[in-house]
């Protein structure tokens, strides 16, 4: 919604800071690939976090979204160095709250504090994290704090991006932003703190069970050695002697593209990823790929009646409008009341590095797309937080739709 009158917390952030028209995520427009693009400034082909579900043929290990032990192995995370690791290496402490990956040792480094990810932290978890983050930033104990909040994504999946449940979740989040604004003023941190907020992707509505591409109708699933994920993007590892047969059969399927590793479009910046499968299936917007309809679950609503398991999804072609995310920021390093041109997820890293006074590592972001957002694009910021420590950053990662 472009009208911010009903969202006073976000209205104050926007009127005192910058907002881009939209932010294009990396492909695939899924969570983990874009967490890492935002924090490394590198495309998926470079940082290798190419899906929420991945498979390493060498070690026979799987990366599964959530909290499984193998997903914490450094092999998934060491394709590029994320910002929090760089800061820790430089002796600057980072505090992270519910941020996926903060519990992982990456290049031998963990953040100074990690409140490990749990599914769908509550609004109280968010406001408590905000207060805790501001405390360690003001005291100088931390140089950067990052907070992850996913309730709107959860509601969007279950009820659809235009649902009343999502609108209510946005209002709850806005109340947390009001708390953030009040706490910053109350602690007199307006001139010491930059606040950056962004989403990792957008979301589109699904017509549940009406637009399902059932793979078993086109191929024999016994020809598939491994299939990971279901939805807009699916990874397939066919049996070696059945590869060509599977590829040919799936090439005839409507509302879906099948790509060999070599055929993945260059504009996706994806195919060079270490864990990219032999075949990548990409559905047209609104379509959902699965082995069959029977394997798709339902869930019960508040009345105990069977209801659609999912009414919203993301992961489609990253240029699809509904996949767009948002970016806004305020603080002493940012201009005020500025609406700016679109940016891409990989651009955010350079901006965060500049406000934190950190030399960015080699990356794929464009400085020219974001330098206009700052009051000065010259020397790296050394603006102190309280007690002459480096500027603080709160990154609230909102896994949802663009709503402001």
Question: How do the helices and strands line up, and which of them pair or pack?
Answer:
Blueprint: H1 8-15, E1 17-20, E2 23-24, H2 31-40, H3 44-47, E3 53-56, E4 61-64, H4 83-89, E5 94-97, E6 113-115, H5 123-139, E7 144-149, H6 151-159, H7 164-186, E8 193-198, E9 204-205, E10 212-214, E11 224-228, E12 233-238, H8 243-250, E13 256-260, E14 279-283, E15 288-290, E16 298-300, E17 306-308, E18 312-313, E19 327-330, E20 338-340, E21 343-344, H9 348-356, E22 392-398
Parallel strand pairs: 1-20, 2-21, 5-6, 5-7, 7-22, 8-22, 10-15
Antiparallel strand pairs: 1-19, 3-4, 8-19, 9-18, 11-12, 12-14, 13-14, 16-17
Helix pairs in contact: 1-7, 5-7, 6-7
What share of residues is helical? 10-25%
Main sheet record: 8 strands, mixed
| Structural class by secondary-structure content | alpha/beta
Which residues sit in consecutive blocks of at least 5 with pLDDT less than 50?
383-404
- The first-to-last residue Cα distance is 5 Å
Number of helices: 9
The residue-averaged pLDDT reads 89
What is the approximate shape? globular
What is the strand arrangement across the widest sheet? 6-5-7-22-8-19-1-20
Q: What is the β-strand count?
A: 22
Rg, Å, rounded: 21 Å
Proportion of beta-strand residues:
15-25%
What does this structure look like?
By secondary structure, this protein is α/β, with parallel strands linked by helices. The protein has 9 helices and 22 strands. The strands form 7 sheets. Strands 6-5-7-22-8-19-1-20 form an 8-stranded mixed beta sheet, sandwiched between helices. A 4-stranded antiparallel beta sheet has the order 11-12-14-13. It has a two-stranded parallel sheet with strand order 2-21. Helix 1 (8-15) crosses helix 7 (164-186), helix 5 (123-139) runs parallel beside helix 7 (164-186) and helix 6 (151-159) runs antiparallel to helix 7 (164-186). The radius of gyration is 21 Å and the shape is globular. Residues 383-404 have low confidence and may be disordered.
């Amino acid at each position: 919604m472009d009208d911010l009158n009903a969202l006073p917390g976000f209205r104050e952030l926007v009127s005192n800071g910058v907002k881009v028209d939209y932010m294009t995520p990396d492909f695939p427009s899924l969570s983990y690939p874009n967490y890492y693009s935002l924090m490394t400034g590198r495309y998926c082909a470079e940082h290798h976090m190419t899906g929420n579900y991945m498979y390493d043929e060498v070690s026979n290990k799987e990366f599964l979204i959530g909290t499984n032990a193998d997903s914490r192995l450094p092999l998934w995370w060491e394709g590029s160095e994320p910002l929090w690791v760089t800061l820790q290496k430089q002796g600057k402490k980072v505090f992270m709250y519910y941020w996926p990956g903060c519990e992982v040792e990456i290049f031998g480094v963990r953040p100074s504090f990690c409140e490990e990810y749990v599914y769908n932290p509550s609004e109280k978890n968010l406001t408590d994290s905000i207060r805790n983050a501001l405390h360690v930033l003001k005291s100088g104990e931390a140089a950067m704090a990052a907070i992850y909040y996913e309730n709107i994504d959860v509601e969007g999946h279950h009820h659809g991006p235009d649902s009343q449940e999502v609108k209510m979740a946005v209002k709850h989040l806005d109340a947390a932003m009001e708390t953030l604004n009040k706490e910053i003023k109350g602690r007199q941190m307006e001139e010491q703190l930059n606040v950056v907020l962004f989403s990792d992707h957008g979301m589109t509505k699904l017509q549940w069970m009406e637009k399902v591409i059932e793979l078993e109708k086109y191929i024999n699933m016994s020809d598939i050695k491994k299939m990971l994920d279901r939805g807009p993007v699916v990874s397939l590892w066919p049996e070696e002697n059945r590869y060509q047969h599977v590829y040919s059969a799936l090439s005839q399927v409507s509302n879906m593209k099948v790509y060999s590793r070599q055929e993945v479009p260059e504009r996706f910046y994806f195919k060079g990823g270490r864990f990219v499968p032999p075949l990548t299936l990409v559905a047209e917007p609104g379509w959902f790929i699965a082995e069959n309809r029977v394997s798709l679950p339902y869930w019960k609503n508040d009345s105990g009646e069977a209801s659609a398991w999912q009414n919203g999804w993301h992961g489609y072609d990253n240029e699809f409008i509904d996949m767009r995310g948002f970016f806004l920021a305020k603080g002493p390093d940012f201009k005020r009341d500025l609406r700016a041109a679109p940016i891409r997820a990989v651009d955010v890293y350079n901006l965060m590095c500049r406000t934190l006074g950190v030399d960015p590592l080699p990356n794929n972001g464009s400085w020219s797309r974001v330098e206009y957002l700052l009051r000065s694009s010259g020397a790296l910021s050394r603006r102190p937080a309280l007690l002459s420590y480096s500027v603080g950053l709160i990154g609230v990662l909102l896994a949802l739709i663009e709503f402001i």
